[in-house]
Structures are given as structure tokens and as C-alpha cells.
Structure to design on (842 residues):
């Protein structure tokens, strides 16, 4: 079959009511599931999977993709409104989204999240269609040494989200790294810091830590001193994103999308690091650097572009190599196989019409996400109107249920509250929570890849310099650290000069 | 006032009567109680989307039609399945908490981990329903064309050939060592490099990316790579050839011991499951595993559906456990601490 034959047959596969309904329904399910804390996009996709067995292959797969994309966007809604990320991918959205909601700009933050998400989604899908082959071969040149250097570079993000005090940021990061070591040792399988408790053998549940760290301290702070001024109803934030604001954030969105595409095409990284990397790049280059973390709309745009840029790109290794990039695509591979389709290079030959139909469906999904997401925002935005005294207990119940639902384990709720008190302590002492979280996400990746690399080379450090990719990230890491030291020093000499000046007066 | 009191008394009498009726109704149902009278929880000790999860959820579809009460499938993942297994062991053995037992939780982990918080004897088995053949494979452009080539390479330069697994104490971990040993590598722990990764997908990708030399895992995990000619299968461990795998069987290669090296899923329960509950499940499993859609979905994923009776299952699991335990003892692979 020629290209055009495939395209026409793909049109016939997609251009029917069922496919559209599957996509739209999937996105709606995903947005709602993503918006419920603890109900991650992964769970939503896993729960939808059995329903697709009876469908046509393309309808079933489009349904799952819809849930996936909707879920990643949906996570931003509670992140902005109640400081509780619906999915791990949206944890970076909290940093500026929640302060915006506090300033009465919830509507604007949600709107920007949607625009950034849809733009990134479109770019991600186009990258999949145009560069799948090239990016896939790039992805396969990532072994443990390359991963290690990439993660090392990503850890420099910590400096960007530390706020005013780098020392406090590093302190939080070290603590995050420490808690990430709880569980089973990767190489020897031995117990680490689990005090013979079977619940700790699996490590601390990621979602429990996430929700505990961000949502619970807000509730505790409110219980501690229910100030009358917080009782005020926050403004609904009727303002919409203006075109000027979108244009101002456009470069950031594009950059974030491509960061998402690159990290998404490499199996095993996931959307949360992409969102953080995009956020820190945006902050580094923005003229409004100072405003980041205090409700900067560009920050919301950056993190949402980063995590949605991943959504299409994870399909690159899936379709081009048959390799699942994350847990969600691993489930989607299952859906392919149930229908007798084998993702991988041969699929472009054997079932090219299905591939083209998927591409068409993906492009349509970006458009549908725009409308369904807009509708969801209208529905959810009223949460910003609920008085705090009603909202807080509701959020608490939602958190408890959500964390329990992840693993059906009461222990996770205990972890959430313990992390909540830790988070409250950090909040009171101005220790930022974001470095803690980044270290908690990246720490295990850093350790695992370092140790895998050492196993590969029988303990020789040469392997960490084996390819141009490793050299690139070593260089980038060094440059970032040098820049940090330079700004640190100049800030210090400024301070010293100021001190000198005042003492002279 | 009196009127009020009277009304109050009437209400109290009515309340008591209702309560009594409720209690008697409860007693009656209790006497007639037939399992199951409330929903059954089916625990999956691994995360959503994994082989165990998909297998368990696919089975729960026909089971849900057959069992008169709802079947709630819950994932309780962590620590290589230990968290979920412990939660089931600690549940009452009344047939309302069941689990998808799996090669990892029931034979590999108990054989390998000295500090595992549960033992194989603490579970009853209702029926093994699925067998996953194991295949060993290398990258398609590798100069290794057969198991003999692989072994020759290991012997020529020890500590240069590596195999990937989905983690310490996984089936893949034991499979690579066991296959090499059967083919004459005296001490695979010393002569091979084991690279543990997070999950089966990452393990297969590692071979594709050249991080590891070979992998031995469930054929279903490799099927699409083999079909796409990205990986080359060297052997399958079953007696019969596996469709789509152009490779000799362990029987062809004269290694019958390797027939024990297979993945499987079953339905397990805490120890001491009542006989009538077991009997019920046996009937349900028989019906569910002959469901056409179930057979179709599982067959396409490359698993062999084969329902064993509770006795056969216990026997099969014990035998595999013994083989693994002996290997672990001989090679000093036990995970302590």
C-alpha cells in the first residue's frame, strides 16, 4: 500500500463516531480522574484497559490515549486550586499555580495551564509523527551512564527552586535523598531503613509523600491559626488569559514542549522531571525571575508544557521500537497485543493504516483536549469560591481517600500525615518543599543508574565518559554550577559592598 | 405530657421490634449463609499494567460474571510483591481475601530472600491457571547465534557477559543464572554480570540498547521484539515450541531440568481456606478459564492456559520452589539482611 492508500484507509478508521466518542470520552475520564488526588493517570488507564478488549483496536487504543492525555492535564486542576497535585506530573505546577490562586487568579492559572498543555500536546504529537525514527534511535543510545549524567544535571534544578536560601534548599534536598533510600537495595536486594516493617520494604509511597508534603501543611497551618482574613472568599478569578500573556509565555511553552519531547522519548524518565526541568529553564531565562514561586504565570506555562510534552513523545519508543517509555505506555502495549498488534518497526509495514489512524487520532485529541479541558475548568473553578472553613476539611478527606486508593494500604495514610507534619515544620521554617520532592524523585534514578553503570564496567569510572551524551551533560552540569557560584559570589560582594557603604556612613 | 411519654413509649417499642426483627433476620441469614455472601477482594501484589495485573484483571472479567458477588480487584504493590502477599497472609482465611499468586511472590522470593516476611507454607492454592514459557534472547545483530555460542563467550572471558533482570530476586534474576548453569557454566554468579533494572520492560530494553548481553524472561515480554527482529531468541524452556519463537526448546537441547523454569499465575489464599470455599473456586475457575474471550486475550499475550487442581497446583509450586532453592543454595545467591 502506498502512503496515500494508508492515509485514506486511516481516515476511514478514524472518521467515524465511535472513534470520536472514544477519544472524547477518554479525555473526559482522564481529566476527572487526574483531578482527583491520588487517582493518577496510570490508574485511570489501567482501569479503562479491560473495557477496550471488546472494542475495535483503533477505538480501544484511542480511548486509552484519551485517558492518558486527559489525566496529565487534569492533574493541574487540584494542583492550582488546592495545592494538591492530582498526578505526580503536575507537582511543578503547584509552585506558581497555587500562589496565583491565592492571589485570586485561579481562572487565569487554569487557563494558562490548558493553553500550555494543548500547545505542548500538539508539538509532542507532531514530533512523534515527524521525528519518531530519529528520536527513537537517540533514545536507545541512553544507557545507565548517560542516564546518570542526565539526572546529575537535572539535580541542578534544586538551585532554581530553593527560593532565597540555597543552604535551606540543599538541606531539603539531602533529606529527600535520604528518605528515597528507604526500601530494598537495587543491587543486593537487602533491606534499607525499613526497621523490619513489611510496609517499608517497598519504600515510601510517592503519592503519599507528594500529597503529605504539599496539601497537609496548608491544612495544618489553617488549623493552627484560622485567621479571619483567610476566611474571606477568594475571588473567583474571572480573568481570562490575554493573548499578550500567551505570547509572552510562548517561548517558554515551546521550550518546555521540546524538553518534554526529548525526555519523553527516552524510556524510564517520566513527566515529573520534564516539568521540573522546563520550569527551571524558564526561570533561568525569564526577566521576571524574582516573581517565580510567587505566582508567575510563566511558571505555570512552563511546567504544564513540560509534562504534556511528554504525553505524545512516550509513544515514540512505543511505536518505533516497541519499548514502553513509562508504566502508562506499558499498559497501552498490552492493549495493542490483545488485538494481535505488535508495536515496533514491523508495525509501520504490517499495519501502517493503524499507525496513521493513530496519528490522526492524536492530532484530533489535542483539539478535543482544548474544549473538554476548558469545560472542566469551568466546572472545577468554583472550588476556588468555596470558603476555606468548608474547603479544608473536604480537601483532607479527599487526600486520605486518594492516598488510600493508590495501594489500598492504611500505612500510606500514616506516611502522608507524617510527611504532612514534616512539611508543616518546613513551611514554618521557610525550608522549601520543592527541592525535597525533586531529590525524592531523582535520587533513586541517580543511584540506580550509577550502580548499573558500575556493574557494567566492573567498577571502572571510565564508563561515565563513554559517549558524547555523557560529555554533554557533564559540561552542562559544570557550567550550571559555575554560573551558580558566580551569581552567589557577586551577590555576596554586593552584600559586602552594601555593608561597607552603610558602615562608612 | 403524658401523651408525649406515650408517644415516646410507642416509638421505643417500635424501635425494639424493628431491632429484634433485624437480629432475627440476621440470624436466619447466618444459618443459611452460603459463600459468598459479600464481595470478594482479589489482591494483586504488583502495580497496575504489569504481567500479573493484566492476567488477574483479564481473569476477573469472566469470574465477575460467574461469581454471584462482585470481585474487587485491588493492587497492593511494593517490595517485589512482599507487601501485598503479607497483607493477604494476615487476612482471615474465609475466602473473602484472595490473591493472584505469581511465580515471583510464591517461589522465587521465598527461595531467594532469607528475610522475607512470609513463607510459602502460609498460603493455600486454589489453582494455577496460566503458564508463561521462558525464553532467552540476545540482540538481533549480536554474533551470538545459539546457547552454545553464549556459553563459549562466557567461558572465554568471564565477567564480560551480562544479563538483565527486572530486579534482585525476580524470576529473570534466577533464570539467567539457571540457564547458564545448565549449559555448563560452573558458577554463573562469579562469571556473569547481573544488571538489575526496575521492571521487565526496562530489562528487555537494556538488551536492545546494548546495556546487557542477554535476557531470560517470559516469552510474552519478548514476543514483539522477536516478531520485529530486534531480538534473537536462543532457546525456550518448555517441552513444546513457542509460536513465533524460531528457537530450539530445552527438550531439543537435552536440558529437561529447564522445564521447571517457567512463569505462572494462580489464585491463592491465606492458609486454612475452608474446603467448601476451595471447591467453589475450583468450579468457578474451571468455568472462567474456558471462557472464549479470556482464552483469546491470554493466548494473544503468549501465555498457555492450563488449569490445575488445588493439589496439582500445590505440587507444582512446591517442586519449582525446591528447584530454585537448591540452585540458590548451590550458588550462594541467597539474599540476607
Amino acid at each position: 500500500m502506498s502512503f496515500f492508500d494508508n492515509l485514506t484507509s486511516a481516515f476511514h478508521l478514524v472518521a467515524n463516531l465511535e472513534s470520536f466518542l472514544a477519544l472524547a470520552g477518554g479525555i473526559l475520564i482522564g481529566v476527572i480522574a487526574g483531578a482527583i488526588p491520588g487517582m493518577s493517570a496510570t490508574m485511570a488507564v489501567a482501569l479503562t484497559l479491560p473495557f477496550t478488549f471488546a472494542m475495535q483496536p483503533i477505538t480501544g487504543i484511542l480511548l486509552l490515549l484519551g485517558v492518558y492525555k486527559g489525566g496529565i492535564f487534569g492533574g493541574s486542576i487540584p494542583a492550582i486550586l488546592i495545592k494538591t497535585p492530582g498526578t505526580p506530573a503536575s507537582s511543578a505546577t503547584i509552585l506558581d499555580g497555587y500562589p496565583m490562586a491565592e492571589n485570586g487568579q485561579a481562572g487565569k492559572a487554569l487557563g494558562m495551564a490548558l493553553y500550555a498543555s494543548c500547545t505542548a500536546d500538539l508539538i509532542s504529537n507532531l514530533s512523534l509523527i515527524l521525528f519518531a525514527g530519529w528520536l527513537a534511535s537517540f533514545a536507545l543510545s541512553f544507557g545507565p551512564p548517560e542516564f546518570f549524567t542526565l539526572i546529575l544535571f537535572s539535580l541542578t534544578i534544586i538551585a532554581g527552586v530553593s527560593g532565597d536560601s540555597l543552604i535551606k534548599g540543599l538541606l531539603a534536598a539531602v533529606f529527600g535523598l535520604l528518605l528515597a533510600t528507604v526500601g530494598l537495595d537495587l543491587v543486593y536486594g537487602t533491606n534499607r531503613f525499613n526497621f523490619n516493617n513489611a510496609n517499608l520494604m517497598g519504600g515510601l509511597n510517592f503519592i503519599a509523600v507528594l500529597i503529605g508534603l504539599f496539601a497537609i501543611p496548608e491544612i495544618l497551618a489553617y488549623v493552627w491559626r484560622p485567621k479571619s482574613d483567610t476566611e474571606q472568599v477568594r475571588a473567583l478569578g474571572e480573568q481570562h488569559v490575554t493573548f499578550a500573556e500567551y505570547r509572552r509565555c510562548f517561548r517558554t511553552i515551546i521550550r518546555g514542549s521540546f524538553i518534554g519531547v526529548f525526555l519523553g522519548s527516552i524510556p524510564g524518565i517520566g513527566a515529573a522531571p520534564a516539568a521540573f526541568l522546563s520550569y527551571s529553564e524558564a526561570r533561568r531565562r525569564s526577566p521576571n525571575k524574582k516573581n517565580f514561586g510567587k505566582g508567575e504565570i510563566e511558571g505555570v506555562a512552563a511546567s504544564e508544557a513540560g509534562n504534556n510534552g511528554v504525553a505524545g513523545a512516550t509513544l515514540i519508543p512505543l511505536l518505533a521500537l516497541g519499548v514502553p517509555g513509562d508504566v502508562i505506555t506499558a499498559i497501552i502495549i498490552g492493549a495493542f497485543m490483545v488485538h494481535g498488534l505488535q508495536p515496533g518497526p514491523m508495525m509501520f509495514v504490517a499495519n501502517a493504516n493503524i499507525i496513521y489512524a493513530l496519528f490522526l487520532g492524536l492530532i484530533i485529541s489535542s483539539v478535543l483536549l482544548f474544549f473538554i479541558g476548558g469545560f472542566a475548568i469551568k466546572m472545577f473553578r468554583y472550588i476556588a469560591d468555596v470558603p476555606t472553613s468548608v474547603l479544608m476539611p473536604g480537601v483532607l478527606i479527599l487526600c486520605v481517600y486518594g492516598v488510600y486508593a493508590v495501594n489500598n494500604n492504611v500505612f500510606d495514610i500514616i506516611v502522608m500525615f507524617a510527611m504532612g507534619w514534616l512539611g508543616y515544620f518546613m513551611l514554618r521554617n521557610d525550608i522549601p518543599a520543592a527541592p525535597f520532592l525533586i531529590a525524592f524523585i531523582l535520587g533513586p534514578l541517580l543511584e540506580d543508574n550509577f550502580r548499573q553503570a558500575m556493574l557494567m564496567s566492573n567498577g571502572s569510572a571510565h564508563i561515565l565518559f563513554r559517549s558524547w551524551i555523557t560529555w554533554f551533560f557533564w559540561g552542562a552540569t559544570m557550567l550550571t554550577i559555575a554560573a551558580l557560584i558566580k551569581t552567589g559570589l557577586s551577590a555576596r560582594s554586593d552584600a559586602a559592598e552594601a555593608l561597607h557603604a552603610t558602615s562608612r556612613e | 405530657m403524658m401523651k408525649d411519654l406515650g408517644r415516646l413509649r410507642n416509638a421505643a417499642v417500635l424501635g425494639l421490634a424493628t431491632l429484634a426483627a433485624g437480629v432475627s433476620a440476621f440470624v436466619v441469614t447466618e444459618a443459611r449463609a452460603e459463600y459468598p455472601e459479600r464481595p470478594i477482594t482479589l489482591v494483586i501484589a504488583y502495580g497496575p499494567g504489569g504481567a500479573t495485573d493484566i492476567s488477574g484483571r483479564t481473569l476477573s472479567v469472566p469470574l465477575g460474571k460467574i461469581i454471584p458477588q462482585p470481585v474487587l480487584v485491588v493492587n497492593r504493590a511494593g517490595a517485589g510483591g512482599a507487601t501485598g502477599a503479607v497483607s493477604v497472609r494476615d487476612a482471615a482465611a474465609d475466602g473473602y481475601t484472595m490473591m493472584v499468586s505469581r511465580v515471583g511472590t510464591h517461589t522465587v522470593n521465598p527461595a531467594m530472600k532469607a528475610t522475607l516476611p512470609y513463607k510459602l507454607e502460609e498460603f493455600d492454592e486454589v489453582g494455577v491457571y496460566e503458564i508463561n514459557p521462558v525464553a532467552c534472547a540476545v540482540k538481533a545483530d549480536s554474533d551470538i547465534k545459539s546457547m552454545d555460542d553464549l556459553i563459549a563467550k562466557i567461558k572465554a572471558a568471564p565477567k564480560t557477559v551480562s544479563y538483565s533482570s527486572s530486579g534482585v530476586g525476580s524470576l529473570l534474576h534466577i533464570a539467567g543464572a539457571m540457564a547458564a548453569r545448565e549449559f555448563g557454566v560452573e558458577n554463573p554468579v562469579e562469571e556473569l554480570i547481573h544488571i538489575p533494572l526496575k521492571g521487565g520492560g526496562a530489562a528487555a530494553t537494556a538488551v536492545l540498547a546494548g546495556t546487557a548481553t542477554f535476557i531470560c524472561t517470559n516469552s510474552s515480554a519478548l514476543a514483539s521484539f522477536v516478531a520485529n527482529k530486534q531480538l534473537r531468541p536462543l532457546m525456550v524452556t518448555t517441552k513444546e515450541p513457542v509460536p513465533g519463537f524460531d528457537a530450539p526448546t530445552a527438550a531439543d537441547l537435552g536440558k529437561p531440568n529447564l522445564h521447571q523454569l517457567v512463569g505462572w499465575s494462580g489464585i491463592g489464599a491465606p492458609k486454612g481456606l475452608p474446603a467448601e470455599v476451595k471447591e467453589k473456586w475450583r468450579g468457578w475457575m474451571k468455568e472462567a478459564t474456558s471462557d472464549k474471550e479470556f482464552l483469546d486475550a491470554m493466548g494473544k499475550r503468549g501465555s498457555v492456559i492450563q488449569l490445575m487442581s488445588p493439589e496439582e497446583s500445590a505440587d507444582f509450586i512446591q517442586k519449582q520452589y525446591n528447584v530454585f532453592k537448591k540452585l540458590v543454595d548451590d550458588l550462594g545467591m541467597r539474599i540476607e539482611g
About this structure: Chain A touches chain B through 60 residues (CB under 8 Å). The CA atoms of residues 6 and 353 of chain A lie 5 Å apart.
